[in-house]
Design a protein that fits this description.
- The complex is a heterodimer of chains A (about 110) and B (about 110).
- Chain A is about 0% helix and about 60% strand.
- Chain A is built from no helices and 11 strands.
- The termini of chain A are far apart.
- Chain B is mostly beta strands and about 110 residues long.
- In chain B, strands 2, 4, 5, 6, 9, 10 and 11 form a 7-stranded mixed sheet that branches. A 4-stranded antiparallel sheet of chain B has the order 1-3-8-7, with no helix packed on it.
- The chains are: A mainly beta (about 110), B mainly beta (about 110).
- The interface of A and B includes residues 40, 41, 96 and 97 of A.
Chain lengths: ~110, ~110
């Protein structure tokens, strides 16, 4: 089957660095995306890795290793506003449209 | 305009009611999606429209009926829903229709079925 597994919760303090992992099983693979969703809000796109390696976008970076079926989102200089749910996502399922990982709730503490 | 707009933001309906959710985007995107999201769960794909035609129905019960009147609008008609259908319904769009497209989401309609 198709699955993307993430830790359910992560807690960190302001100013710290946190890594959110995603391990996946999909029949084909077209790259890994990351979305952020604040409570009651819309998921918003953060980053995409089509190839192995690190992609950096400001305070956020994302990494992919296709040989390990693994990726992570790295958030640096954490701010309170980063408290949100984070989802990895990849095409999968019978329709090969975007399916989302189990989600990680990040709590940033003062 | 880089927004996907959904109305209403909140909806409470009885099991015998008929209601519609609306979604609009003016980014010229060619694909539009309906996702369902339960609390503390990831979004789950329901329907995909590509170039205004229904291309994917993820085995959604017939009490949910999508409609795409034009390239900017997407509706979800609701009839005879069950309490377990209570969820956040998210509309999204993407520029292309390929796999792994970047999705732009609306803020959703929080639906409660009594």
């Amino acid at each position: 089957g198709q699955s993307l597994e993430q830790p359910s919760e992560v807690t960190a303090v302001e100013g710290a660095i946190v890594q959110i992992n995603c391990t996946y099983q999909t029949s084909g693979f077209y790259g890994l995306s990351w979305y952020q969703q604040h409570d009651g809000g819309a998921p918003t796109f953060l980053s995409y890795n089509g190839l192995d390696g690190l992609e950096e976008t400001g305070r956020f970076s994302s990494f992919l290793s296709r040989s390990d079926s693994y990726g992570y989102l790295l958030l640096q200089e954490l701010q309170m506003k980063d408290s949100a749910s984070y989802f990895c996502a990849a095409p999968g399922g019978a329709t090969n449209k975007l399916i989302f990982g189990t989600g990680t709730l990040l709590a940033v503490q003062p | 305009d880089t927004e996907v707009t959904q109305t209403p933001k909140h909806l409470v309906m009885g099991m015998t009611n008929k209601k519609s959710l609306k979604c609009e985007q003016h980014m010229g995107h060619r694909a539009m999606y309906w996702y369902k999201q339960k609390a503390k769960k990831p979004p789950e794909l329901m329907f995909v429209y590509s170039y205004e035609k229904l291309s994917i129905n993820e085995s959604v019960p017939s009490r949910f009926s999508p409609e795409c009147p034009n390239s900017s609008l997407l509706n979800l008609h609701l009839h005879a829903l069950q309490p377990e259908d209570s969820a956040l319904y998210l509309c999204a769009s993407s520029q292309g229709t390929g796999n792994g497209e970047k999705l732009f989401f609306g803020s959703g309609t929080q639906l409660s079925v009594l």
